[in-house]
Amino acid sequence: MVAKKRHFWDYARYANMAFSFGVTMIAGTLLGLYGGGWLDRRLGTSPLFLLAGVLLGIGVGFRSVLSELRVLEKEAPGIKTDAQDKTHPD
């Protein structure tokens, strides 16, 4: 019974991370799109800041996801990642 509850919370944690990844990527991209478009309209540099804003938003989204993955990795030290399996084959 305890193992089932633990698996449920593990799945819930990963589902939350997947949802967070989607929301972060969409929010970052839209903020970059809106901010870059606003700057381009102000400065007349279309589409320079629009493209820079979108790329920055995507980069921020990936950075956020990587930081979440690092936290998950620290919380579950018993679980080996693919990179650890390749360096220390059993």
What tags apply to this protein structure?
0% strand; single chain; 2 domains; 90 residues; elongated
The biggest beta sheet reads: none
In total, the number of strands is: 0
Report the structural category: mainly alpha
- Total helices: the number is 3
Principal-axis shape equals elongated
* Number of structural units classed as domains: 2
Protein name: F0F1-ATPase subunit Ca2+/Mg2+ transporter
Pfam families: ATPase_gene1 (PF09527)
InterPro entries: ATPase_put
Keywords: Membrane, Transmembrane, Transmembrane helix
Task: Describe the protein's topology.
Layout (H helix, E strand, L loop, with lengths): L1 H42 L4 H28 L6 H6 L3
Helix pairs in contact: 1-2
Pfam families: ATPase_gene1 (PF09527)
Organism: Neomoorella glycerini
InterPro entries: ATPase_put
Structural features, described:
This is F0F1-ATPase subunit Ca2+/Mg2+ transporter. The chain crosses the membrane at residues 12-36, 48-66. It comes from Neomoorella glycerini. 84% of the residues lie in helices and 0% in strands. With 90 residues, the chain is an all-alpha fold. The protein folds into 2 domains: 8-44; 45-76. α1 (2-43) packs antiparallel against α2. The longest helix is centred in the N-terminal third of the chain and has 42 residues, at 2-43. The chain is elongated. The two termini are 31 Å apart. The mean pLDDT is 85.
